[in-house]
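Running this now, will post back.
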Amino acid sequence: MKCTLAELRSKEIINLKDGSRLGYVDDIEFDTEDASVRSFIVYGRTRLFGLLGKEDDIVITCGDIQIIGVDTVLVSVEPSKVTKRYSNEMKSLFK
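Update: finished.
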């Protein structure tokens, strides 16, 4: 199945382990050496219209993806092991 980034952005990510909705695919990370996709990124939600920054980004590795369907991406990852990445804005706040 071929899928463009524009098509991926309309797919919601659901965790099969606990049934939680993680969000929508916002971006991808890929390896430039072998042109393979490494992970999907879900940007953190803004807090109070962005005045209080935003939540951490969620990084989902391709190994955790079970099925990419028409409307959803099903992943299987332990809720405690969801990789979160601090946004650059929040890093500078704590320095």
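The helical segments are 5-8, 88-93. More later if anyone needs it.
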